[in-house]
From TrEMBL:
SUPFAM superfamilies: Bacterial luciferase-like. Pfam families: Bac_luciferase. CDD domains: Tetrahydromethanopterin_reductase (cd01097). Residues 10-280 form the Luciferase-like domain. This is F420-dependent oxidoreductase. Signal peptide: none annotated. The keyword Oxidoreductase applies. One of its GO terms (molecular function) is oxidoreductase activity, acting on paired donors, with incorporation or reduction of molecular oxygen. Keywords: Oxidoreductase. NCBIfam families: F420_MSMEG_4879.
Length: 305
């Protein structure tokens, strides 16, 4: 999988989907061969990835990430297989565990059994993707449809989880194809994430998992101003316990220290540390996503890395 970038279409555009396709096509023309789309409360990331991948042949597309709550794994399986068929086999499903506080605000409830729900989600997905059938009865989910669950052209389909904690990494190594950590620095990757998920995959008899490190990036000649913009963009993550633990594990003073900020050469050097730490792939997440002028230098770095 080539170095990827996070795609975030201009929300002031007249048509959101058309804007996403246009941005993806521009990135592809710049040499980018993999884009990732975040799930938010406006567009549906899986659908949008399918549209983008169908419109830009040869471009890998994926979700970074779709929270498992409040989604049922049967629905996710049908959406993901449809996107995989639409893109001609260039889709990757990236899942996230979610966060209780935002879920309570948005949905009026939260799902406390995080690891149990993740395990059952992946068990249902694994059954569908590996066997084409599912008959599952768990504590969190039941999945026993009386109708077909497969989409022609929808498999094989890689599934990744934005797992960073020990329990989530072990479940991911056992049942998924790799992890998509965000804000996990080189030290955390090398000392904790890579060995933990690799051991779990080995014990489960699965192939070596991918470790797709997503890094916030800003290419600029004014490093001081860039770090100030990074601080503003990333302050939310320091309030989420899972990210706070990763920041602490990395041993840095601030979440800003986990961003790659500087000239193209400086950013490239910082990103190469992630490969040295065991990342199999890297995703560049632009800290400033408004305007092609801010994105093009990041696309150039991704294409050359």
């Amino acid at each position: 999988m080539p170095t990827g970038v996070v795609l975030d279409p201009d929300r002031s555009s007249a048509n959101h989907v058309a804007a996403a396709i246009d941005q993806a096509r521009r990135a592809y023309d710049a040499g980018v061969r993999q884009v990732w789309i975040a799930q938010q409360f406006d567009h549906d990331a899986i659908s949008l990835a399918g549209y983008v991948g169908a419109a830009v042949p040869g471009l890998g597309v994926g979700t970074f990430v779709v929270p498992i709550n409040p989604r049922h794994p049967l629905i996710l399986a049908s959406q993901a297989q449809t996107a995989q068929a639409a893109t001609g086999g260039n889709f990757s499903l990236g899942l996230g565990l979610g966060a209780h506080a935002p879920e309570e605000v948005a949905f009026g409830t939260a799902w406390p059994n995080t690891i149990g729900r993740l395990r059952e989600h992946l068990q249902v997905l694994r059954s569908i993707l590996d066997t084409g059938t599912v008959d599952f009865h768990g504590d969190e989910f039941t999945a026993a449809p009386q109708f077909p669950v497969t989409v022609a052209g929808g498999t094989p389909l890689p599934v990744y989880v934005a797992a960073m904690g020990p329990k989530a990494l072990r479940v991911t190594g056992e049942l998924a194809d790799g992890t998509l950590p965000y804000l996990a620095g080189p030290r955390t990757l090398e000392d904790f994430i890579v060995p933990t998920i690799t051991a779990a995959a080995t014990e489960a008899g699965r192939s070596a998992p991918k470790v797709i490190a997503a890094v916030p990036v800003l290419v600029t000649d004014d490093v001081e101003e860039g770090r100030a913009r990074a601080a503003e963009a990333l302050e939310f993550y320091a309030t989420i316990p899972s990210y706070a633990r990763v920041i602490e594990r990395e041993g840095v003073d601030s979440v800003i220290d986990l961003a790659a900020v500087g000239t193209a050469a400086q950013v490239t050097a910082q990103l190469r540390r992630y490969r040295d730490a065991g990342a199999t792939d890297i995703v560049l997440s632009p800290l400033v996503r408004t305007g092609i002028a801010a994105l093009e230098p990041i696309w150039d770095v991704a294409a050359a890395l």
